[in-house]
Amino acid sequence: MLLDVLQAAEAGGFTLIQDTVKCSGRGILKCFINAALKRGEDVHVLGFEASETEVCAGLDNSCVQKLYFHKGFPDPLGWMCRSSFTVDQLTSQHITKLIKDAQHAKASVLVIDSLSFVLRHHDPVVICQRLQELRKGGDIKMIISLLHSDLHLQGVVGIVSHLASTVISVAPANYEHHTVAMTTRRTKSGKVMQEEEYFSVSEDATLSVQAKSRQSGHVQKEQDVAEADPTTNLTFNLRLSEEERKAKEKVALPFVFSQEKKSALLRPTPGSGRIVYEPDASDDFDEEDPDDDLDV
């Protein structure tokens, strides 16, 4: 599912990448940027946490000219007037103007790196409203954002995740060069799909995905079911001994006929019965016209 989300370009989609201090999601964010550039789409990056050099490292050089980096690093609040974009400018009007001022103005992919810095300085409800306006404005084809989930309350993470159409939560795995990604995708029809996969990111921002094996979990579950005995720790016995089973088989059931009784009932006995019929006065024995009494 992770590769499908990476290659998809759903109009109005919002992909949220959640990471923690134990596992960074910046690598998979660069994979999304690289995939959008290779599709020929314009990508606008709002960089609050990383420099342009760090973001562009490893991207396809033949497509990097379609990337527009709006510098918010290292002065995202604009205190030293060293940034071209600040967190206060994250509004639909200002971002729409940035996109239209680009050389090839068209519906573009907006990347927010990261949304955590914005949420720390603004009301989460207001930010969600602005993101929703950007999704419906028409100038933004897709929004991709990084969110450090361990920096916020669960309620804040919940409302932002509810707004997203796809949520990718990354966590460390046992493998040395792999990471676990839990992808939750909600379609326009309301159907929710979820899948857990291993992935790795190469130096050229290429994503490799490996399905997580579920065999060990199924084997363990089957063993647990096989070992569970529902008859243990009962005050009565549900099983019969060999002697009890033989005694049970000898008991004649009250409504089951034995072979001897069946033979006696089915054996014909001549002269044991007869039928006597006395006709009534209204009986009509005229076989030629059985409906003569109907006056038709």
From TrEMBL:
UniProt-listed Pfam families: Elong_Iki1
Region ranges (Disordered): 263-296
Keyword vocabulary terms for this entry: Cytoplasm, Nucleus, tRNA processing
Coiled coil: none
Localisation per UniProt entry: Cytoplasm; Nucleus
Composition skew (Acidic residues), residue ranges: 280-296
Pathway: tRNA modification; 5-methoxycarbonylmethyl-2-thiouridine-tRNA biosynthesis
Any one GO MF annotation of this record: tRNA binding
An example Gene Ontology CC term for this record: elongator holoenzyme complex
GO annotation terms (biological process): tRNA wobble uridine modification
Family according to the record: Belongs to the ELP5 family.
Name assigned to this protein: Elongator complex protein 5
Organism listed in the record: Culter alburnus (Topmouth culter)
